Amino acid sequence: MRVIYLDHNATTTLLPEVARAMAECQTGQFGNPASQHQIGRRARQTLEHARDAIGHLLGARLSGRQPHRVVFTSGGTEANSLALLGLAAALDPAAVPGEAIVSGIEHPSVSGPVEYLERRGWTIHRLSAASDGVVDLTPLDAWLSGRTRFVSVMLANNETGVVQPVAEIARLCRALGVPLHTDAVQMAGKLPVDFAALGASSLAVAPHKFHGPLGTGALILRHDVELPPLFFGGFQQSGLRPGTESVALAVGFHTALAAWEREGAERTSRMRALRDRLEAGLAAGFAGQLIVNGGAADRLPQTSNVAFVGIDRQALLMALDLAGVACSTGSACASGSSEPSSVLRTMGCSEAILASSLRFSLGATTTVEDVDEAIERIVGAANRLAGVSRSSAAH
What we know:
There is one protein chain. This protein is an alpha/beta fold. The chain folds into two domains: 4-10 and 264-394, Alpha-Beta Complex (Aspartate Aminotransferase, domain 1); 16-258, Type I PLP-dependent aspartate aminotransferase-like (Major domain) (Aspartate Aminotransferase, domain 2), CATH 3.40.640.10. It has helices at residues 16-28, 38-57, 76-87, 108-119, 140-143, 166-176, 195-198, 247-285, 313-322, 342-346, 351-354, 368-394; strands spanning 4-5, 69-73, 99-103, 123-127, 148-152, 180-183, 202-205, 217-221, 290-292, 303-308, 325-326, 357-361. The strands form three sheets. It has a seven-stranded mixed β-sheet, with helices on both faces. It is globular, with a radius of gyration of 22 Å.
């Protein structure tokens, strides 16, 4: 049976052109970019070209008197930790616990460092979200103050796809000189990202979410953001993120982002149409109540979070895996947990919705045939489970 992959928010397939570019780099630009001989200098030139191109495509200003910086990391998780623990100066033994504001719908790579700070005595204010999945900014006026060390709100949610009002939050933060970090890992390569226009202090991104390579990511920093490193042992990237940079991964990162820049409008339109086709097909075929979580808000074009009310999400996930449909119950970084989604809980969803929601996410390689076949398999599995639930209830 052909497996239909609907978990692109977890990771995506590598585009052939990205694989080719990386393979050519591995053989042709194999030198250490820190080496002073000509092979090393060529590798350094390739690396810095990729860095500048990535920054440009994400709206960073890398020239002029106050240039932004692009720091390569191992992925979005490291980029988020580097930003948040750096803004908190968390590794400084003399650092005094402060206050921070985050949303309650953040990815574990943000909520994890924040919980670490909380255990160390920090006061954490958490923004709730409305039923449509958009963060409620009402408390910001009361919470933002000179005591606030940073604010962190993601650009678009990884579970519901709901786009967040980060530019508005940035405006409020700038008025008080408070740094704002945003996790753009799900947004980049799906919708345009303009770092300069957003007004954030820092932004995290990872190319494996848009058909680039695993094992690399980036943190974009405004000119006035100074962070201490998380670890030590090298001078690379001004000592902020020491270690030999991978030229091939940087090239793959750039190639994937350039492909999005070239095809973005077509991809967005096609994935949105496929997502709507999927949701309409599920609604028409499922015998019970079906709810699209965040469906009333502005969403990423590829993300659909659906509640099959009355059906256990874990049972349906396993049934779909057996039926050859790969999807998820939420963030891949939290998928080992049987707990209901903290994102949906923050949105105020009922226990019935929490217990029955799955995430389907499309990619640039998803076809109409994939979606139509997925609808048939999902509806079949869901209706069979609904029949079993009704039969059990009758007895």
